Amino acid sequence: MTPIDREDIFALSLTVDDILDYANTTIEEMALLEIKPNAYMERMVSLLTDAAREIYMAVVRLEDHPNVANDHAVRAKALENRMETVYREAVADLFHMPRDIDHVVEMLKLREIYRHLSNAADRGDEAANVLGDIVVKRM
After folding, report:
1. Which of 4, 35, 58, 137 fits a disulfide with 69 by CB distance 3.0 to 4.6 angstroms?
2. What's the whole-model pTM score?
3. Confidence check: pLDDT of 63 > 60
């Protein structure tokens, strides 16, 4: 018997697995599409790293300090919101007057990578929601 419902453990494991899947497919696609990291990607990855750290800290503190765990989950959600802002900035920057067909192809490649990173952040938001649900059930 676990102190957390099996369904919640399963839901949390699925969301964390999705985060990792998006991270891996992003790297694979960058290699396949021959895309080098840029400043937007670096900002997005930094935010994802911070969100993953918050999710980890929430899980670690879940049993003994559920309120602290919830604070970490809230911070992870805030980081996802910041990620969406960076994503929108990056996409907007892509569409400033394409120069030629090669530039359009590059735009499409970058948008795909940005979308993968944004999707990873969305899954982090879902993980934070699951953690919040677990905390509510424990109180």
Report:
1. 58
2. 0.89
3. yes
